[in-house]
Amino acid sequence: MNWLTPRWRLGSLVVAAVAGAALFLVACDGDETDTIVFMPGFRPQANLPFVAAYVADARGFYEEEGLEVEIRHSPGGAEHFDLLEAGDVDFTTGTASGFIGRRSARLGNGGELDVKAVSLFGQRGDRGYVVSRGSQIEGPADFAGMTIGRTSPAPPPELLAMLATVGLSEDDVTFERVRFGEIDRFLVGEIDVYPVFVNNEPDTLRRDGQDVIVIDPADFGIPTLGLAIFATNETIADTDLTTRFLRATLRGAIFASENVDEAVEITLTFDESLDADHQSFLLETELVNAARPDGIGRGTVEQWQALVDLLDQYESLEVPVAAEDLFDGAIVDGIYERGELF
Predict the structure, then answer these.
(1) Which of 70, 104, 156, 255 could join 317 in a cystine, given CB atoms 3.0 to 4.6 angstroms apart?
(2) Separation between Cα atoms, residue 227 and residue 50, nearest integer Å
(3) How many Å apart are CA 110 and CA 79, to the nearest integer?
(4) CB distance 274 to 45 below 8 Å
């Protein structure tokens, strides 16, 4: 199934969402408010689940749900998951592949990870590759004999799978380990195919005058997933609280899809040094990658299983993991099925 739909399919929900929002507000007794902490898994920027929360807070969607949401940003590493497990954070974000690897490693050490994704925004992964437009490289079929950068110790599974679609293997290319930010090695021609975050780095390169083509593994049928919102099983068990948080956050995402400029302005309140045009590019890219016909933020266990199978096939997991232990979409599905967003 093709999970992508044009952006207007998402945006068309917003008019009804705004007009009918009052029908779905949660009544609060007196001044009672639940205080929770949401921690985006990186510094302030226009990643869609970040923006959805920024907008939900600024537009009063959380307040309407009887919530006071403190938005704290991750210190920069994987601390947000540690804080989530410790109970210092109620909801956080992360990549699907990173979470799968974390769970596999925990199980491999004889432990357990009492956390699941409750909403999937990235219907495709956030990692891809760029090549110079004049290089005559248009896709993986042209990678033979090329030098490919990789930031991980081993070649990424999605890259190996993409090569396999055209009958190539890692023996047909040369891998070079690169650190984040070593774009100069690509600019001088030392690296032919350079790894990037597709939602922002291509824009940065083009702003610097580089004419690049983006090669995204998802465009070649490789199962990839991006950012999701996570909670502990204890928090998920509080269905009312989790429903209210996700309902307001999804309203924020839908609002952002039709009001990109305003959503970016709200994002800038968290970091005034951000470039508005660049953040607009990031958000527009995220919205395209989040689109799906049955509603933004939804996902299926089957999607997660396909990614697990890919990681397992290329021996990226310490031990097998079960997809049903990774994702619980019941609350978001219920919000849509009850028509609470539009």
Answers:
(1) 104
(2) 10
(3) 21
(4) yes
Q: What angle do CA 260, 264, 270 make, to 5 degrees?
A: 155
Amino acid in position 24: F
Q: Which of 20, 32, 51 is nearest to 269 (CA)?
A: 51
**Rounded Cα gap, residues 95 and 46, in angstroms:** 15
User: How many angstroms separate the CA atoms of 35 and 90, rounded?
Assistant: 10
Three-class SS state of 334: helix
Reported as a single tens digit per residue, the pLDDT across 73-83 is: 998 778 999 99
Q: Is 140 strand, coil or helix?
A: helix
Distances (CA, A) of 320 to 101, 307, 308: 10, 12, 8
Nearest to 250 by CA among 4, 55, 111, 73: 55
How is residue 4 written in tokens? Answer: 């992508």
Provide the b/e sequence for 285-306 (b: ≥16 CB within 10 Å). Answer: bbbbbbbbeebbbbbbbebbbe
Domains in the chain, please, with CATH? Answer: 7-124+224-337 (3.40.190.10), 127-220 (3.40.190.10)
* Cross-strand partners of 230: 92, 117
For residue 26, pLDDT beyond 70:
no
Burial class (CB in 10 A: 0-12, 13-18, 19+), 275: middle
Tell me: pLDDT of 71 over 60: yes
Residue 58: how many CA atoms within 13 Å on its side-chain side?
Answer: 19
DSSP-derived letter for residue 223 is -
The 10 Å CB-count burial string (b at 16+, else e) for 309-325 is ebbbebebbeeebebeb
